[in-house]
Design brief:
The chain has 24 helices and 20 strands. The protein is an alpha/beta fold and about 650 residues long. It has three domains: about 240 residues, OB fold (Dihydrolipoamide Acetyltransferase, E2P), CATH 2.40.50; about 190 residues, inorganic pyrophosphatase (n-terminal core), CATH 3.90.1640; about 100 residues, Roll (Diaminopimelate Epimerase, Chain A, domain 1). The strands form four sheets. A five-stranded mixed β-barrel has the order 16-17-18-20-19. Strands 5-4-6-7-8 form a five-stranded parallel β-sheet, with helices on both faces. Bound molecules: manganese (II) ion (MN).
Length: about 650
């Protein structure tokens, strides 16, 4: 029986023989029944492992939303200290729901299990696998002030007004700005897109820039991805131009006294759409504006604009602003990826050409290929390069801007790398001293990059991390936290106590400025308020979803898993464990040998599987792979189907390993 070794086991017992599609996937009932061997110590279904809530297994949650994940449970394969120092735990579905999904939808059992482990119920499974806007796009009118905003925009269109779009220097801000400029341009308005300079103007609307836009003839200013907290600056336009805010930042108080503030995170907005990025809010505004114009008969003699063509922008912003890829966001990203694949936006096509990206676009393309390059200029160079790339319809300019952004992105990487080494070493010392919060700073560290470095430190030490650059006696910094530890509240407390000059944020991320002399006091306050973080394990738990054998790691299984894509925040790519794999060959490949390519085999021999480890300069994980056949390893990683030269093969992308 060929599939007796090509099995898939998961940490919840399924009744053998009841799952559909197992044979097609090479998942044998035998393999599932063999669970007791594969995962000793797993509780039978229905018996909750003790103390899950008390232990707070939130550490491995990839959702980044701060809430513990109820599907994370018992230790996996007894791995308590992997080669990267992590504990492995199962992500456990409820058997009844996973089987229900598989049977109702006629999908492979593994798909049912992965969906159930993500909290998807039987009712929601179809919309998850086939997320259409028809089913999932909410009525824009659910958002407070939407009808007022749409009516004002429709008026601007009918009167052919000049409309300024005031954006932000990050990807969401650039995309939201491009979306509104595209829409209003297509409807016949003259538009003035504007992005503030990070270094000289800072985040959000400022009176001088707004007045300059009015002076250039704008009778309406639309602020996107900013403006909710800018009442004072917006008041400068009183009597000079109308203002609309399309934003998603959490409001601390009442909205500014302007025509309309469309923001699902306004205190008085009851839409429940709190997880939309600003570009998605702008898209809903576009839908509402076109609807208002349609009702007024505006399209009797002219074609409606193609709103679907704007979805590449919404997808890019949703992924880069780290919104969870569930619900309507999933529909927006899936449809947006199709639009991106048509390469009609020549700026993005040019950027894909510069990096020679020929694969079908994925969430990875958005978050790791396009996003960082569009962002790079906002971080360390001319802020509006990204927006100009998104808006240009001149192929020569697109190629020029794309090449420039690629260069700026490499400069950003160099700036980052030079800070990273010093920052990591300082963080290492603090972690060893038992600090709950790691706060490191350096003279001249670039304020556009400190957030990225804080994120890396947080990942490495599983602690809240703050990184600040000091210039002229002023420290400007950014912090990232781990689930369950509210950094934003602590930063707010530091501002209220007078230690910080400015400061605010969310549970998971915050920004601040203070006099350099107060850094120590700030660190002390953070350590005190967030003392609970000192008790966290030194590396976040790794959530794994099942064991597969090397022979069971097939293209078919990879394609079944891929039905859950796009992966990202709120929908982590499934991690599987290849149990007791032997490394036959392992070589350093790629630029500077930062990648390890290995060929591995199961215990019984047979077909080899290609496995890759990225960012593998040093460490116990890289050493263990390069030592080859020494001892069998449990390998944790992602299984993907890779297309190369017309043939499709499975590949395993290693995240972690443990000595078996
Ligand atoms: Mn945003």
């Amino acid at each position: 029986m060929a599939d007796a070794v090509g099995n898939t086991t998961v940490p919840t017992l399924a009744a053998p023989g009841t799952a559909s599609g197992e044979a097609a996937l090479g998942i044998s009932a035998l393999g599932i029944a063999a669970l007791g061997i594969a995962a000793p110590g797993i509780a039978p279904p229905g018996i909750a492992p003790p103390g899950i809530a008390a232990l707070g297994f939130a550490g491995a949650s990839a959702a980044g939303l701060g809430a513990p994940d109820p599907h994370l449970g018992t230790p996996a394969l007894n791995v308590t200290n992997s080669l990267t120092g992590r504990r492995w735990i199962w992500r456990e579905p409820e058997a009844r729901i996973s089987l229900g999904i598989a049977q109702r939808l006629g999908v492979p059992d593994i798909v049912g299990r992965l969906l159930a482990a993500r909290g998807i119920g039987i009712e929601g499974a179809n919309d998850f696998l086939d997320p259409t806007l028809r089913a999932l796009l909410p009525d824009p009118s659910l958002l407070i002030d939407m009808e007022v905003a749409a009516a004002r925009l429709a008026d601007a269109v009918r009167r052919g007004e000049t409309v300024a779009v005031f954006g932000d220097y990050d990807v969401d801000g650039a995309c939201a700005g491009a979306l509104m400029a595209n829409l209003l341009g297509a409807l016949g308005c003259t538009t003035i897109p504007y992005v503030p300079d990070r270094a000289t103007e800072g985040y959000g609307p400022n009176a001088a820039a707004l007045l300059a836009l009015a002076a250039r003839g704008a009778s309406l200013v639309v602020c996107v991805d900013c403006g909710t907290a800018a009442a004072a600056a917006l008041a400068a336009l009183d009597g000079k131009a109308d203002v609309l805010v399309l934003d998603h930042h959490k409001a601390e108080g009442p909205p500014p006294a302007i025509l309309a503030t469309v923001n699902p995170n306004r205190l008085d907005c009851t839409s429940g759409l709190t997880l939309l990025c600003a570009t998605a809010v702008a898209f809903l505004t576009a839908v509402a504006t076109v609807r208002a114009l349609r009702r007024a008969g505006f399209f009797a003699a002219r074609a409606e604009p193609d709103l679907m063509a704007l979805l590449d922008l919404v997808a890019l912003a949703t992924v880069c602003d780290v919104m969870p890829l569930t619900g309507v966001n999933r529909a927006l990203v899936c449809q947006g990826l199709k639009v991106l694949g048509r390469r009609n936006r020549i700026g993005l096509a040019a950027l894909l050409d510069v990096v020679q990206s020929r694969d079908k676009p994925s969430a990875f393309t958005l978050g790791y290929v396009l996003g960082p390059r569009i962002n790079a200029a906002g971080r360390i160079s001319q802020a509006d390069l990204g927006l100009r790339l998104l808006l240009t319809d001149d192929p020569a300019e697109a190629a020029r801007l794309a090449a420039r952004l690629d260069v700026v992105n490499r400069q950003r990487q160099e700036v980052e790398a030079s800070m990273m080494e010093t920052a990591m070493a300082a963080a290492e010392r603090q972690a060893a001293q038992g600090h709950a919060v790691l706060l490191v700073h350096g003279d001249g560290w670039h304020p556009g990059v400190v957030g990225i470095v804080a994120g890396r430190i947080k990942e490495r030490f599983n602690r809240p991390a703050c990184v600040a650059g000091v210039a002229d006696g002023v420290a400007k910094g950014s912090g990232r936290s781990v689930p369950g530890i509210d950094l934003g509240a602590a930063v707010l407390a530091a501002r209220q106590s007078g230690i910080l000059t400015t400061g605010g944020g969310h549970p998971m991320a915050a920004g601040f400025t203070l006099g350099a002399g107060r850094l120590e006091a700030f660190h002390e306050l953070l350590n005190e308020r967030l003392a609970a973080a000192a008790l966290l394990p030194s590396a976040a738990d790794l959530a794994v979803e099942g064991v597969i054998s090397v022979l069971g790691a097939t293209t078919e299984l990879a394609q079944a898993v891929a039905r859950l894509a796009p992966f990202g925040a709120g929908n982590a790519e499934p991690l599987f464990v290849l149990q007791r794999a032997r490394v036959l060959r392992a070589d350093r490949v790629g630029r500077e040998g930062g990648t390890i390519r290995a060929f591995i085999e199961g215990e019984g021999g047979g077909r080899r599987l290609k496995a890759m480890l990225f960012r593998a300069r040093e460490g116990a994980l890289a050493d263990a792979l390069l030592a080859r056949n020494a001892v069998p390893l449990h390998l944790a990683g992602h299984l993907r189907a890779e297309e190369w030269n017309g043939s499709v093969n499975p590949g395993f992308f290693i995240t972690d390993a443990a000595v078996a």
